[in-house]
Amino acid sequence: MITYSVEKLSDIFDELKPLLQCHYEEIARHKDVIKLNPDYDKYKVMDNAGYLHTVTARDGGKLIGYFVSFVMPHLHYKDCIMSVNDVLFIEKNYRKGFVAMRMFKFAERTLKERGVLKIHINMKIAHDFGILLERIGYVEIERIYEKML
Predict the structure, then answer these.
(1) Distance in angstroms (rounded) separating the CA atoms of residues 60 and 58
(2) pLDDT tens-digit readout, 6-15
(3) Which tens digit of pLDDT belongs to each residue from 21-65?
(4) With 90 as the cut, is the pLDDT of residue 97 above it?
(5) E strands, the chain, where?
(6) Range of the domain at 24
(7) How many domains does the chain have?
(8) Are 67 and 23 spatial neighbours (Cβ–Cβ below 8 Å)?
């Protein structure tokens, strides 16, 4: 049975690391130059300050997915609490069916309970899940470009 929960990211670092490595291997660009090296100390500070919102998906207690967001008032609109997605991932074996949609809907509900007014989600073009987002009410609003120096 798949369950969804809000957890403190800093409480699940050890459990998260193997999934984060799989996530990196699947989607990261420029792996020859930029290695996976999360600043867990800063994440812990942000988590303890209440600026992170971590939703987990578990199958029988085993971590199979995560949806981690930064939550804070927007610097341009201080009356608007925003959620900006940091990382989200679901193990490949769980991507068919409704796991992703249910994780998103759970995240939306629990973010709304925190007073979040708007959610931003980023995705890699090569790993497009826009059809899922559009199906649950999201609209594409921006594009991001990068250049390696």
Answers:
(1) 6
(2) 999 999 999 9
(3) 999 999 999 999 999 999 999 999 999 999 999 999 999 999 999
(4) no
(5) 2-7, 52-59, 62-73, 81-90, 118-120
(6) 2-135
(7) 1
(8) no
The H-or-E segment that residue 28 falls in is: none
Question: What tokens were used for 146?
Answer: 């990068």
Q: Write out the two tokens for 35.
A: 């290695």
Closest CA to 95 of 133, 65, 115, 117: 65
The closest of 48, 55, 15, 21 to 35, measured between CA atoms, is 21
CATH number of the structural domain spanning residue 39: 3.40.630.30
Phi, psi of 105 (to 5 degrees): -65, -40
Least Cα distance to 6 among 49, 61, 52 occurs for: 52
Distances (CA, A) of 60 to 4, 7, 57, 132: 11, 16, 10, 25
